[in-house]
Structure formats: structure tokens, C-alpha cells
Amino acid sequence: MNKVIYSAIFMLVVVCQSCKSDDPFTGDCFIQDAAVNITINMDLPEYYNLRNLGEFVLFDNQGHRGVYVIHNYDDLYYAIERTCSYQSETDCARVSLDNTLLQLRCGTFQADTFKSCCGSVYDFNSTFIGGPTRCNLKTYRVSKNGNSLFISN
């Protein structure tokens, strides 16, 4: 009987020690805040393709490491921070859009080769699919008025 109790206590201690903090300021999911204020007129040639499902635009000068604006296949627009939610403070924690796999992946493309950082993978709506992360990517507010999109935090 004592062996069962000691085994249960041991397992409880092991499980509790393996848990990570979910506190957004000390856990793995913290992404530094940065100002985001984007207005997109989809009547302009450089943004016209955003009317089509699956199209995207990257704004390198917004957010912490850039912002993807994606017209997802659910016909909704998403503004997604490029900073990976797993160990976001590391230099390589940058998300890149992989158009062939229709995913966002932690790492960068160099020429035509993908160089992985942590291996985290996300859907076009910012939901994590796999890898070491357990958090979705940070998103920004998107509102649409006619052919204009307004993105902010």
C-alpha cells in the first residue's frame, strides 16, 4: 500500500515540475508589444491580390518582427505577428509563410531553402499545429470597410 502512495506522490512531483508557466509575462508565450497601425486600400495595385483567398502581404516595419496580413480560405482577414510564440526572445524566432504547405513556420527562407528555428508550425489563422510551442501566434485587430482594411492593436 505504501509503495502505491509513494509512487503516486513521485508521479505527481514529476508532472508538476515538467509544467511550464502560462503567465503571459514569464511563460514561453510572451511576445513583446509593438505599435501596429496599417491601412490597406485593396483598390491599389500592390494590395489588389488580397481580395483573393490565400493571398497575403508582409509589413516588415510593423509589429515586433513584422506583420502578415492574410486573406485566409475561411474568407476572413488575419493580421499575424511574425514573432514565434515559443522562446520569442531568441533571434531566430521569426515566422515565415510557407505558401506550398499553407502554413506559417518558425524559421526563415534563405534562397529556396527553409532554415528551421524551433520547428513550430501554425495555421493561416495563427493557431499552432505542432512543434514545441503550445500557444497561438499574436494577432492584431482587423476591420474591413468596403475595399479597405484597418489593422491595429
Tell me what the structure shows:
This protein has one helix at residues 2-18, and strands at residues 37-41, 56-59, 67-71, 77-81, 95-98, 103-110, 113-122, 128-130, 139-145, 148-152. By secondary structure, the chain is mainly beta. Strands 1-10-9-4-3-2 form a 6-stranded antiparallel beta sheet, with no helix packed on it. The longest helix has 17 residues, at 2-18. The relative contact order is 0.18. Mean pLDDT is 84; it is low at 12-26.
SSE order and pairing:
Blueprint: H1 2-18, E1 37-41, E2 56-59, E3 67-71, E4 77-81, E5 95-98, E6 103-110, E7 113-122, E8 128-130, E9 139-145, E10 148-152
Antiparallel strand pairs: 1-10, 2-3, 3-4, 4-9, 5-6, 6-7, 7-8, 9-10
Any idea of the CATH class? Mainly Beta
Strand order of the largest sheet: 1-10-9-4-3-2
The amount of helix comes to 10-25%
Query: Into which percentage range does the β-strand content fall?
Result: 35-45%
CATH A-level architecture: 3-layer Sandwich
User: Segments where pLDDT lies below 50 for 5+ residues?
Assistant: 12-26
Q: What is the subunit organization of this protein?
A: single chain
